[in-house]
Amino acid sequence: MKPSRRFLRKPKKFWAHVRTLGQHLGYTVRNSQQIKVPTITEMRNALAALGLNARSVGTDARHTALGASLRAYFLHRAKVLQNFVEPHLMDAAEAKKLFIKTRAQFNPSCPLPMNKQKGKKKAPAFLTGMVNMLIEKNSGAMTCDYNPLELTTVTHAGAPLRTLARRVDGAFPSPVNPIAVWEIKEYYYTTTFGSRVADGVYESLLDGLELEELREETGVDVKHYLVIDSHFTWWCCGRSYLCRIIDMLHMGYVDEVLFGREVVDRLPALVRGWARIAREREKAARTRNARAPRERSNRARNTSSAG
C-alpha cells in the first residue's frame, strides 16, 4: 500500500493532533471491529478534556482547515483498513498455501528460513520465504542480503556517513549503501497482541526517523518497507497498531507497507525498480573507473608541462 498523496507532507502539528486524539479517544469502536472516525465535536471535547486548545478544530457547523483535514484523514484511514488491509491479511493456513504455491512456481535457491516456533507450530517462515522468493525471481538473481548480520551503513568517500541503530530484516543489494531495506512482521501463531509485536512497530518507526534525517541532511534516499501479516494478530487483536502503521506511512517514515497477500501483487514491481537502480549504479561506477586513468594521465601531463 502506498500513502495517499492528500496526506503526505502534512506538518508535524497535524500528526501531533492525530496522536493526541488517538490516545484520548481510542482507535477502534468498543465491542466492534470498526475503526473509530471521531467527529469534530468529539475532537473538540477530547482536546478540551486534556486542557488543550479546542478551537483549533472548530465546530461541526464551522470547522477549521485543520479540523476538516483531520476528519478527512480519519475517514481515509478507516476506509483503507477496513476495505483493503483486512481482506489482504492471511491466517497461517492461507499463508502456507500461498508459500507452497510460490515455491513450486519459482523453484528458488534463496534462503527459506524457519520460524521460531516449536513442536507442531514449527514451520517455514511463510511471509519471509515469499518475500525472499519474489525478490530473487524479479531482481534477475542480483545480489541481495536476505538476513543482514550487520548494521545498515551509508558511506561517502569510503567512510561511514550514517549507520542505523539496529539491524533490518533485509537489504538490497547489501546493508552497505542499500537501495532498499525492509522489516517483516509475521505473527501467525501468537495468541495475544503482546509487547513484542508492539515493539516491532516502534522499531520500524525508529528506522524511518533515521532514514528521514539521512534524506533531509545528505540527500541520500534509501527506500524503506514494512511487510506484515497475520489476520488474528493484527486485525483481531491489534487494530490500534494498524492505525499507527497507516499514520507512520503517511508521515513518510515508510515508503510502502505490504499487507499479507499483497506481497505477490506489489513486490515484483518494486524489486524490478530496485534492480534498475542497481544497474544504473553499476554503469555509473564503470564510467567513473574508465575515466580515472585518463584523468590521472592528464594531470600528470599538465604537471610535467608546468615543470
Fold and architecture overview:
- This protein folds into two domains: 5-88, no CATH class; 92-284, Trna Endonuclease, Chain: A, domain 1.
- 53% of the residues lie in helices and 10% in strands.
- The protein is built from nine helices and six strands.
- The protein has helices at residues 12-25, 40-49, 65-88, 92-106, 126-138, 195-218, 231-237, 239-250, 262-306, and strands spanning 153-156, 159-163, 170-172, 180-186, 223-229, 256-259.
- Strand 1 (153-156) and strand 2 form a beta hairpin.
- Helix 1 (12-25) packs across helix 2, helix 4 runs parallel beside helix 5 and helix 7 crosses helix 8 (239-250).
- The longest helix is centred in the C-terminal third of the chain and has 45 residues, at 262-306.
- The mean pLDDT is 93.
